[in-house]
Design a protein that fits this description.
Helix content: 55-70%
CATH topology of one domain: Outer membrane efflux proteins (OEP)
Shape: elongated
Strand content: 5-15%
Order of helices and strands: HHEHHEEEEHHEHHEEHH
Strand order of the largest sheet: 2-5-7-8
CATH architecture of one domain: Up-down Bundle
Number of helices: 10
Distance between the termini: 105 Å
Largest sheet: 4 strands, antiparallel
Radius of gyration: 44 Å
Structural class: alpha+beta
CATH class of one domain: Mainly Alpha
CATH superfamily of one domain: Outer membrane efflux proteins (OEP)
Length: 476
Amino acid sequence: MNAHLSHSALSPSKNQISKRMEHAMFRARFLRASATAGALFLFAALAQPNEVRHLKLDEAVRLALAQNRSLRLARLKVEENEHKKDSARSDYYPVLTNESSILHISELQDLTIPQGSLGSPGGVPVPGQPTTIREGNNTFYSSGTQLTQPLTQLLRIHQENRVAAVEIATSRTELKAAENEVALQVHALYFGILVAQLQKHAAEQEASFATESLHENENDVHNGSALQVAALQSRAELLQGQQSVLTAELQIDDFTTDLNDLLGLPLDTKLDLDPDVASDFQTQPKDEYLKAAWDENPEIRAAQLTIEKARAGVAAAKTAYIPDVTAFARYSYQDGIPFFVRNFGTAGIHLSYTLWDFGKRKANVSERDTQLSEAEVNLERLKEKVAVEVERSYNKLERTKSMVNVAKQVAELREESERLASDQAKQGVVLTSDVRHATAATYKAKADLLQASLGYLLAYAELERAVGRTPGSGTP
């Protein structure tokens, strides 16, 4: 009986087992539900559209200059040339080197001393018999540490350092040109998106007008007051309006993708561009722009640096006629070489000169002279090219300014026409489709005005780029 009670006390009851099973099942269901909820939350988070990024033009330019991948490569090129310059500068200083070797010789030269060759004091020959002495060992070791300082080579090293410095300046100039080009592309895409958005609104108004016109013409056809061709014409206009909307949407998507790539953003980033772009800049006379272009344009600056590099190349080529004189000091260790002490030092001057090379040095100098002439001619060509670009950009700026004035007048007339159409529609004089037509014409006029205004700003950005400045990087 006591044993039975003791066993019952130690063994769990059926209710306890049931409760434990229910608890385990509840816990398993809770874990499955939590995992499912977490997966659904993650899926919902991934399925959410990207947040819209609000951008102003100057912010977009700064973002592109900081994150554009091609500009990052250009900056790395500058860094590469700076390291190359450090390498060229180190050639001015002495170089400490070590040369060590282990050699094995199959046969050694023996030194044989004949009998009595050292004399015969007291009638006894020295040596008493022929003696053979081995010179050195079959395997010998040598090691030398040498300090060398170029002397006449410093003339050539100086020219090489000039070339390395020019390459740094050239890569920086190329970076500046790339920054100007990227900034101009940002302007073009930014303005293109704004224009396409307004064109989309205008196309939507045209489609709305076409829908209303179609409805009215179908009623007229049904009432017998119009021919079927009127309804067909309205339907064609509706389809054309819808096609214009789709075309504008496709253009917006393409421009947005290109701008995201230019800014270094994810390609699917949605952008909300601020249409309020500063346009209160003061233009200067054309001669001032041309003078500034010759001083600041990266292409002209790069051409000038190429001339400097070519001159250094000519000077370096002429140093080939100068002997190479090098001072050196060496400390050596050897083991196994006959007639040499184990440790010894040497110092001296080493001279090397090419006596005859079948005209190679002369040809190299002539080649460098020709490259210098090419660089000088290229500079003049680029000056003419930049002058043409400045002239074209300046004229485009003047023309687009006139286009803005005309587009502004057209937009004002369209707004007045829309107001009159709305008043007449309230009086029952004109149809609703006429009002929508006037509204669509107003939207199109506003789109044309914005396009002209942005064209004017783009022309100014092109002029800034032609001069050598980064468009949008500072106050106009």
